[in-house]
């Protein structure tokens, strides 16, 4: 029903899609080979690698991941089949991106010509830094964009139908349950689909109350997540790592200034190519223009949806300025679908894509021969550049993260325990280091609560406290309170972050938003040992440029 004969005119069109899928998967493999799990991915790994589904769900209910459950359920099943290695879990995300790209193309092809559809889809999916980075990241964003794309396909299908069946309603409810249970922003995007239906119906003066009721039923499912959400979200109070956005953050996202949505150099190449083709084909007969599409109503419905998708970041930015900072680019990944729709619609209106490419006739002029040959050559060349971009992105990718702990022994003291002051540094070493028993994370709520500690220290304290409760066999002996640790060791090393530096005061003005240096300034060493006559603190040097290695010893 949703993939009827009108989706594509020629099955050869799917060749481009097959190549794109291969490019995404190869890009994921190449990037995965260059980087280790980092903090956020390890937050996924502990759940997905859990041997017990019941235990994973109990841990999910604690203050570890402030995210709905669907990704962890599906990822847990994936890991049971394919394993929980870096590549396996990242390929799970990559397959989500592949599905999103495929479904977006199919949705647009139902409404637009082949070349506008293909360019409009791939210029976003193949050049977006958000897409290509999350294509090789063991987090929920591949699944998030895949479900949003499926919801877009169904949105288009429903708007073509005079009457909806029980199957249509059931599928809509299921898709939007999935959307709101994949990411906290799923509710915003599900609301966009409902609002798009409502605006379309207002314009056509036809109201479908059962359709709106189906959305309410889907949203009602969030009741089952609320108990977990309240516990999870407490980890981010009274402050969390997301900084207060400034106006430039919004402008960069909406106006494509930072490459998150798509790389503007490809827009520039496309522009000059289209100008050249337009000049070349200026004299084509008006008779050769194809007839307008018979699905204008469906096109306008998609345009309404695309504009609302693009407006979501504005709404999120306002919430971040007035209620709580939540503005972060990858959280708004489904908005890229709006840009694909708009670009495709714009290209489809250009005369050069409406001219029928007629077969060569013996009496055709040399210029007509050149036009016929150049048109596909230029478009195919541009498509080749787009399709190769995921591989180029992977080739140029530099993780910047060395093997966790590889430089921790450069100053000696190889037999001493090492306290790691950041959750990411600690979890990475516990996952990879052959000497994982050396590493400790200190639970010291008093110092974590200090304003000087920065935005994230109290939050990561709560995360690691939850890890200790839920995964004692993996981490419990290495996450200790300050008193327990100091009773156990008289001297030790500390990998300190922003050692002996004062975090700037948190600010809320547009011109002086929170400085990223205020993210993590742990105060355990500064409060407990500096100025304490019972302890001596010696600075040994930098490690990886991220930490300062300290030697702390008890004088008594």
Q: Which stretches of 5+ consecutive residues score pLDDT under 50?
A: 506-514
Radius of gyration: 27 Å
Taken in chain order, the helices and strands follow as: HHHHHHHHHHHHHHHHHHEHEHHHEHEHEE
Strand order, biggest sheet? Answer: 3-2-1-4-6-5
Shape: globular
Helix content: 55-70%
Average residue pLDDT: 89
Q: In this structure, how is the largest beta sheet organized?
A: 6 strands, mixed
For the termini, the CA-CA separation is 79 Å
Question: What count of helical segments does DSSP give?
Answer: 24
Strand runs, count: 6
Strand content: 5-15%
Overall SS class = alpha/beta
Word description of this protein:
The structure is a single chain. By secondary structure, the chain is of the alpha/beta class. It has helices at residues 14-32, 39-48, 53-60, 70-82, 86-109, 114-125, 129-134, 141-158, 166-180, 186-204, 209-220, 226-233, 247-254, 264-280, 296-322, 336-348, 351-354, 366-396, 423-432, 445-448, 457-470, 472-475, 482-488, 524-528, and strands at residues 418-420, 439-443, 479-481, 491-496, 535-543, 547-554.
Give the SSE map.
Blueprint: H1 14-32, H2 39-48, H3 53-60, H4 70-82, H5 86-109, H6 114-125, H7 129-134, H8 141-158, H9 166-180, H10 186-204, H11 209-220, H12 226-233, H13 247-254, H14 264-280, H15 296-322, H16 336-348, H17 351-354, H18 366-396, E1 418-420, H19 423-432, E2 439-443, H20 445-448, H21 457-470, H22 472-475, E3 479-481, H23 482-488, E4 491-496, H24 524-528, E5 535-543, E6 547-554
Parallel strand pairs: 1-2, 1-4, 2-3
Antiparallel strand pairs: 4-6, 5-6
């Amino acid at each position: 029903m949703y993939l009827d004969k009108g989706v594509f005119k020629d099955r050869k069109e799917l060749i481009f899609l097959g190549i794109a899928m291969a490019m995404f998967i190869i890009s994921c493999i190449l990037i995965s080979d260059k980087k280790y799990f980092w903090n956020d991915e390890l937050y996924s790994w502990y759940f997905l690698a859990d041997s017990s589904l019941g235990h994973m769900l109990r841990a999910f209910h604690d203050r570890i991941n402030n995210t709905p459950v669907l990704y962890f359920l599906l990822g847990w099943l994936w890991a049971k089949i394919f394993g929980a290695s870096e590549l396996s879990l990242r390929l799970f995300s990559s397959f989500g991106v592949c599905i999103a790209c495929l479904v977006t193309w199919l949705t647009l092809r139902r409404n637009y010509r082949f070349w506008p559809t293909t360019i409009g889809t791939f210029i976003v999916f193949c050049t977006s830094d958000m897409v290509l980075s999350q294509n090789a990241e063991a987090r929920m964003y591949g699944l998030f964009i895949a479900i949003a794309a499926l919801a877009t396909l169904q949105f288009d299908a429903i708007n073509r139908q005079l009457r909806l069946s029980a199957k249509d309603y059931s599928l809509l409810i299921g898709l939007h349950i999935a959307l709101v249970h994949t990411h906290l922003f799923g509710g915003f995007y599900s609301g966009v689909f409902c609002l798009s239906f409502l605006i379309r119906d207002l314009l056509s003066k036809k109201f479908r109350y059962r359709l709106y009721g189906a959305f309410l039923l889907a949203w009602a499912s969030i009741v089952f997540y609320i108990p977990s959400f309240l516990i999870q979200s407490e980890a981010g109070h009274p402050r969390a790592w997301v900084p207060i956005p400034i106006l430039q953050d919004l402008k960069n996202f909406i106006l494509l200034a930072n490459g998150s949505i798509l790389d503007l150099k490809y827009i520039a190449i496309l522009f000059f190519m289209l100008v050249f083709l337009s000049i070349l084909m200026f004299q084509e007969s008006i008779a050769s223009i194809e007839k307008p599409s018979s699905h204008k109503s469906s096109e306008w419905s998609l345009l309404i949806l695309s504009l609302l998708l693009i407006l979501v970041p504005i709404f999120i930015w306002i919430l971040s300025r007035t209620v709580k900072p939540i503005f972060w680019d990858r959280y708004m990944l489904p908005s890229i679908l709006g840009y694909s729709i708009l670009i495709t619609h714009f290209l489809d209106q250009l005369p050069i894509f409406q001219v029928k490419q007629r077969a060569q006739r013996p009496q055709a002029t040399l210029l007509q021969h050149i036009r016929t040959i150049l048109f596909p050559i230029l478009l195919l060349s541009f498509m080749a550049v787009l399709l190769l971009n995921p591989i180029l992105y992977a080739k140029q990718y530099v993780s910047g993260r060395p093997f966790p702990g590889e430089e921790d022994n450069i100053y000696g003291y190889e037999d001493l325990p090492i306290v790691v002051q950041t959750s990411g540094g600690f979890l990475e070493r516990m996952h990879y280091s052959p000497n994982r028993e050396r590493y400790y994370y200190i639970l010291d709520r008093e110092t974590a609560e200090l304003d000087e500690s920065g935005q994230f220290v109290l939050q990561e304290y709560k995360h690691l406290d939850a890890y200790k409760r839920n995964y004692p066999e993996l981490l419990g002996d290495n996450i200790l309170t300050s008193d327990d640790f100091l009773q156990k060791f008289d001297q030790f090393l500390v990998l300190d972050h922003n050692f002996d530096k004062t975090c700037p005061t948190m600010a809320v003005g547009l011109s002086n938003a929170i400085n990223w240096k205020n993210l993590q300034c742990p105060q355990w060493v500064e409060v407990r040992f500096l100025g304490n006559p019972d302890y001596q603190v010696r600075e040994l040097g930098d490690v990886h440029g991220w930490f300062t290695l300290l030697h702390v010893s008890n004088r008594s």
